[in-house]
Amino acid sequence: MIRFIALFFLVLAMQTASAQDNSKKEVCIRFRVASSVLDTKYADNEANLNNVIEFLNEVSKRIRDASIYMSKKYRSSFYS
Question: Which of 11, 22, 30, 55 has the CB geometry, 3.0–4.6 Å to 43, for a possible disulfide?
Fold first, then answer.
């Protein structure tokens, strides 16, 4: 019985781990020593910040598309 419970929780944990989306974004922004000012000319900050902007535009487009889909689905089910 204990093995069954352990197996159940193991399967549950694996399901949770596989359900997580791997489309996360990590960014490295570099600062000069003893400075808190964001300098786009320093290292590769400009390219990294452009990647962040592109990623946020893509996410906002996905959200917009999903909300349009949901509103169409809601309207079609409402009028049926």
Answer: 30
